[in-house]
Design brief:
The complex is a heterodimer. Chain A is mostly beta strands. Chain A has no helices and 11 strands. The chains are: A mainly beta, B mainly beta.
Chain lengths: 115, 118
């Protein structure tokens, strides 16, 4: 099992450009999440998908959109990138959408720089 | 909304010694879970240990143990017999118990950088 994979690993954008961060998991997990990590701060939830076909806003959703393409894939889109979106982005997944046994498994992260 | 606070930005410890990381949280929930995650230089987020709030017994996982004080809303992590591979950022995280459809959402503290010195 590859676990949670993210592409790309690194990306540099100019202000106003758009891009999509891809995330896929091969663990048959129901729930998927997108976080961002800024220096000196912990991870903050951007959007999540409790199950296939549903998405909900997290703590910092402004400037982002998401798509739960199928059970395996959950993408994060920046329509018009801004320097404030420079961050490291993590995708995570859990088997069910409730319960203590549902450890969140994280991908390796994408480092995004917006100039 | 929940908040998680880690008051120690950085700590250093000699190899084989013990270090304790502090975490406090604020919530009005009565049923929740607490976690410690490790983030080494590789950036990978690795679950170290977790605690169910309804359990009075403190969780342990090999050299890692917690001191969970529910009334004080405190959740500290003790790393015993520190090893060079323990060098990493450590994040405390909170998750409230949810119904099945709502998703497990984690709230993270700001992190503590731990440096293990040889």
């Amino acid at each position: 099992n590859a676990g949670v994979t993210q592409t790309p690993k690194f990306q540099v954008l100019k202000t106003g450009q758009s891009m999509t961060l891809q995330c896929a998991q091969d663990m048959n997990h129901n729930s998927m999440y997108w976080y961002r990590q800024d220096p000196g701060m912990g991870l903050r939830l951007i959007y999540y998908s409790a199950s296939e076909g549903t998405t909900d806003k997290g703590e910092v959703p402004n400037g982002y959109n998401v798509s739960r393409l199928n059970k395996r894939e959950f993408s994060l889109r920046l329509e018009s990138a801004a320097p404030s979106q420079t961050s490291v982005y993590f995708c995570a997944s859990t088997r069910r959408s409730g319960g203590i046994t549902d450890t969140q498994y994280f991908g390796p992260g994408t480092r995004l720089t917006v100039l | 909304a929940q908040t998680v606070t880690q008051s120690q930005p950085e700590m250093s410890v000699q190899e084989a010694e013990t270090v304790t990381l502090s975490c406090t949280y604020d919530t009005s929930e009565s049923n929740y879970y607490l976690f410690w995650y490790k983030q080494p230089p590789s950036r990978q987020m690795i679950l170290v240990i977790r605690q169910e709030a309804y359990k009075q017994q403190n969780a342990t996982e090999n050299r890692f143990s917690v001191n969970f004080q529910k009334a004080a809303k405190s959740f500290s992590l003790k790393i015993s017999d520190s090893q060079l591979g323990d060098t990493a950022m450590y994040f405390c995280a909170f998750m409230k118990a949810v119904i099945k459809a709502a998703g497990n959402k984690l709230t993270f503290g700001g992190g503590t950088r731990v440096l293990v010195k040889p």
